[in-house]
Amino acid sequence: MTTTTAPADGAPEAKEVPPGSSPWQLARRELRRRPAVRVSLGLVLLFVLTAATAPWLGALGGWSPEEFDKSAIDPYLGGQPLGSFGGISSEHWLGVEPVTGRDLFARVVHGAQVSLLIAFAATAIVVLAGTSAGIAAGYFGGRTDTVLSRLMDLTMSFPSLIFMIAMLSAAKDVNRIVLITVVIGVFGWPGVARVVRGQTLSLKHREYVDAARVGGSGSWRILTREILPGVSGPVIAYTTLLIPGMISTEAALSYLGVGVRPPTPSWGQMIAESVAFYETDPMYFVIPSVFLFLAVLAFTLLGDALRDILDPRGGRS
């Protein structure tokens, strides 16, 4: 006869977890249970799809991001958009820029492409460099750990924002997207390296690592087959939390005028240009700001959820 024990009053009913579930299966199950995370995941996929298809979306709207439409602005009112809400119409789905008449929909979707390209590329540099340095420092220890740890401390103590502004201001004839990506990546890796180093220190003396070492496995095989899978969960969670910071950094640099150069569209650049028109054409300020806010919020919520699931000890108590 099978008996069941009722949960105590006020205690949440335990969910049955199928035996043999992998961490990724548990993560998918937890993500499906959280409505806010499902919404944020949907927004993330929408932004990624928008960035990937920006040229086709811009063509669908009928305008390129650099194309002027003088018929959409009033030359007698300082180039203010014709119509309500910044010139929103069937021809210009999100309105137009004051003075130039450039289509805001085309510029916003191409701005998403630029912002996410820089964010993803810089995050890839940060994660690869930080994971490599953290695993090496934690596993080999000794002089390797000392040198890499001091390099982490030096990089983290450096005034990175001031250096970024100075370097981007001095660099003239270079590809700004590549330069911004490299500069952000160079200063971002120590955070990941510290997390990975701590995880590696806790894993390198586990029984299965000792068994692999006794069995004759070399350092490279142990690092790639035993240590790396053990730190992948926290690294993935940390990666999703890095992306919104990268998006904000790129937007801030473009807002300060040292980021992506015109006429290449960027959300931060559009917000900076809209400041002069926020009283006469508030939609020009609102539209790129809303896109930037939603992108950062969606990636942040998704990153928080993945951190709680894949790295419970690193989450909030």
Largest sheet: 2 strands, antiparallel
Helix-residue proportion? 55-70%
Looking across the biggest beta sheet, what order are the strands in? 1-2
The radius of gyration computed from the alpha-carbon positions, rounded to a whole number of angstroms, is: 24 Å
Distance between the termini: 40 Å
User: Proportion of β residues?
Assistant: under 5%
Strand count: 2
Order of helices and strands: HHHEEHHHHHHHH
The backbone outline, from C-alpha atoms, is elongated
Q: Helical stretch count?
A: 11
Mean pLDDT across residues: 83
Which spans have pLDDT < 50 for at least 5 consecutive residues? 1-17
Structural class: mainly alpha
Write the layout of secondary structure elements.
Blueprint: H1 23-33, H2 35-52, H3 54-61, E1 73-74, E2 80-81, H4 104-140, H5 142-157, H6 160-170, H7 176-203, H8 207-214, H9 219-255, H10 267-274, H11 282-310
Antiparallel strand pairs: 1-2
Helix pairs in contact: 1-11, 2-4, 2-11, 3-4, 4-5, 4-7, 4-9, 5-7, 7-9, 8-9, 9-10, 9-11, 10-11
Quickly list its features.
single chain; 317 residues; mainly alpha; two-stranded antiparallel sheet; 11 helices; elongated; disordered N terminus
Describe this structure in words.
This protein is an all-alpha fold and 317 residues long. 67% of the residues lie in helices and 1% in strands. It is built from eleven helices and two strands, in the order H-H-H-E-E-H-H-H-H-H-H-H-H. Strands 1-2 form a two-stranded antiparallel ribbon. Strand 1 and strand 2 form a beta hairpin. It is elongated and about 80 Å long.
